[in-house]
């Protein structure tokens, strides 16, 4: 798999709605830059092997690179390695997995993460119009502490996440997806630990000329302890709403001579995040536009 993309973000640093923030119990200006562009690329290789009649084993290795134009928060190189085993038990499709990653951040400590999880789904209803999915994952994230990043390890965390989803095929073109999730992050420093509750709704439209997906996700975050570097009088709590619309179309629809098999995909997306918080630092609106192009090759 090969991919490249471009993102225009209109509030890259999540500047608050009134351009103010709290620091050490004092209100000060929030003067960070808002508009920025990011260019990214990725490459991945997947090996798949059948195991018996109804099972398979997969290994995926990937590399991703991201470079920001003005700021450096999105400057990173990321390496990943994933293993997954897919099998069927009765009417259940079960997939245990393990993933490892290393991220070299441009202006922050290196991050090492490992996640183990299990997910599954089963179909129900007439003509299998309904699909129920579920999953659990356990993650361990660590950041290198060094002379330049003396507090990086304060966000080291063990995470637990559970989810359940429902997909419904309305007809050959339209389908819906609904998801519920709960996760907890147990950070080394308590002010970085939090609980998250998620609800997502999505409409998918598989037109002959393009694939369009429209979604909205609500996320409620409750932190465990106050961050004294911001304010000691209030524990952070926020709610975010993320609206997005994505369009996928084959390059060959525009240039048949370049992509006769319509295997090169163009992805266009827009998303808008509205965050409402009880601390003004996290009360913000941001939106972004992205353009991506990807192609998959079969090596055998």
């Amino acid at each position: 798999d090969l991919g490249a993309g471009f993102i225009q973000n209109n509030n890259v640093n999540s500047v608050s709605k009134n351009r103010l923030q709290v620091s050490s119990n004092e209100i000060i200006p929030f003067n960070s830059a808002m508009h920025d562009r990011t260019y990214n690329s990725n490459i991945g290789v997947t090996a798949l092997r059948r195991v018996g009649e109804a099972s398979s084993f997969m290994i995926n290795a990937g590399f991703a690179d991201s470079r920001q134009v003005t700021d450096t928060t999105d400057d990173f190189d990321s390496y990943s390695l994933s293993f997954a085993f897919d099998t069927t038990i009765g009417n259940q499709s079960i997939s245990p997995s393990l993933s490892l990653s290393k991220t070299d951040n441009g202006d922050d400590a290196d991050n090492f993460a490992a996640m183990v999880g299990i997910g599954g789904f089963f179909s129900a209803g007439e003509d299998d119009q309904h699909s129920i999915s579920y999953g659990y994952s356990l993650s361990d994230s660590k950041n290198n502490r060094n002379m330049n990043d003396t507090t990086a390890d304060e966000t080291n965390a063990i995470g637990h996440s559970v989810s359940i989803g429902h997909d419904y095929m309305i007809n050959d073109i339209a389908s819906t997806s609904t998801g519920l999730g709960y996760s907890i992050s147990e950070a080394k420093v308590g002010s970085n630990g939090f609980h998250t509750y998620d609800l997502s709704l999505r409409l998918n439209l598989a037109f002959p000329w393009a694939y369009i997906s429209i979604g909205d996700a609500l996320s409620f975050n409750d932190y465990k302890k106050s961050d004294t570097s911001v304010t000691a009088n209030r524990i952070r709590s926020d709610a975010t709403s993320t609206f997005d619309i994505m369009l996928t179309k084959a390059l060959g629809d525009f240039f048949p001579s370049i992509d006769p098999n319509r295997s090169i995909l163009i992805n266009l997306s827009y998303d808008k995040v509205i965050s409402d918080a009880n601390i003004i630092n996290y009360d913000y609106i941001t939106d972004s536009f992205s353009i991506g192009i990807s192609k998959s090759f079969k090596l055998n």
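The mean pLDDT is 94. Residues 271 and 293 are 18 Å apart (CA to CA).
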